[in-house]
Specification:
Elements lengths: L71 H20 L3 H7 L4 H11 L17 E4 L8 E14 L5 E14 L7 E8 L35 E4 L8 E4 L3 H15 L15 H7 L7 E2 L2 E9 L6 E5 L3 E16 L4 E3 L13 E3 L2 E16 L5 E17 L5 H29 L3 H24 L7 H23 L7 H22 L1
Antiparallel strand pairs: 1-2, 2-3, 3-4, 5-6, 7-8, 8-10, 9-10, 10-13, 11-12, 13-14
Helix pairs in contact: 1-2, 4-5, 6-7, 7-8, 8-9
Amino acid sequence: MQAAFGAAVALVTLLGANAVAGAGSPTHIQLASNEVSSARPSPTHLIVGAPIRLPSALFAAGAQGSADLVSPSQARSAATAMWNAWQSALYTNDTRALSQLAVAGPMLDGTIYNCAFPSGRCLASPQRPKLGQLEVAVPRQRSYPLYFMSAILTTNDVQNSNGLSQVEPWMELQILTKTTRTAPWQLSFDSGYNAIAGVQPPFPQFDFGVGPYGPLHSDRAYNGNPAVTTVVTKGIGKAPTVVTTDNYLPLLATYWQSYKDVGHAPGNSVFLDGGDSSGEGKSMAETREGSLYNGSRDTYKFAFDPHAGTWRFTVGGGYPLVCGSVLDAATVTPVEGLLNQNSDEVNYGVPLPPGSYFRITTSAEHEVCVSYALGGTNNSLGGLSVAGNDVYTSAVTGPRAPEDLVDLETDYGVLSSELAQYNTQYSECETSNGKSCVKSLALNFAEQFAQFDNGLMSYVFPPQFDVDVNALEKTAGKLNGLYESVSKTNGSTGDTSSIEKSVKNFKSEYKKLVRDLS
């Protein structure tokens, strides 16, 4: 479980008609035979712990050819076994067990990366969440893959809107999938929500095709088939909008993207205000598309991720509940120079190896459930509502800078720092030792540009960048000569306008070389 980012959420319901098994990204964590020795996961040893024996309940299913391949009672047993095994693995930081219990893909990757960062613990709180009341939503299924959802009342370390974290009541939403008759049930989706002021959050209002509502009723209580479309009437006097269930998650991606782009929801949005809809959107708007922070520019791209899995259920009187992932790709690009990932992989997260990069993109999966909800006076209006928003950092990537450019960046950083101090040092020279001080200062700068020029010529860059490298080398050589001229004139200020112009060209040409190399 991870902390919720929204405060209040509407009553939710889960999936129901067709499940698409999560394929996982091509870069998902690979198990290595040598990753078993460390007591806790770390950036260099992500997979630790011994393999576990999966509980028999995680293999339960009906016989091939039976009317229903998974019953609600089987689902309850599997959900209970999964909860206990998953929480035990999290509590003991056993990432190998986690990899047995969950489907390979963004959710598992994000969970394991979180275990290894920053202190090698999977749970933020030392308090292990307990299994409370459990309900399941099981559609009738006669072919593989199988799936169902479990809703579990428990507790979680929740980060509230004020930025503080505390343990609060929590509604955990888990989707388990089973690909074949012999395969175990595995965790494919893990999200949840809390309620305002720490009160107990409500269970989703699951619909059932046969039998009464409730967690302890007969095996005949299956979740019904959801409608394929929803008629949304959001706003007095507005024409109704027909929304297909296939478009729930893509619409949410567009909705959140609008907050990043313009700071508010798109016009005529089908989403209701509040909770993890506009509540999360307003939080996203605090850092807008193209904003500058700490010398870098931030850009964002939201998109529905079909590869992470999509599931449908029915809630609240036959309305669809669609659960899946919205991918948030956030890219940091330095205004100048390179970005550095330190050896502990703390600067940008565990998935990114140490080194220097032209830009870095963090891919985060928002696991959400979207359903239709009533709103307005006397529930006369309705729209789409979002519940659950656990975020999993599934990948951190970027083009890595060649080692020669990294060394050049170091040289440039030293030289740039010296140049920034030149005016101050020059003013001090005029008030102290006069021309002899200026002569010494100019000689020092002449030597620094000569060293930079020599270093530049020793680096090996691809031939297509020769024009950029030669231009920078020529300007560095010119500045070496200009400062030498000042030193040889016994401290005369020399051609200051030419020096200023050349320094400006030097900085511009260096930025162009880095930009072209990226």
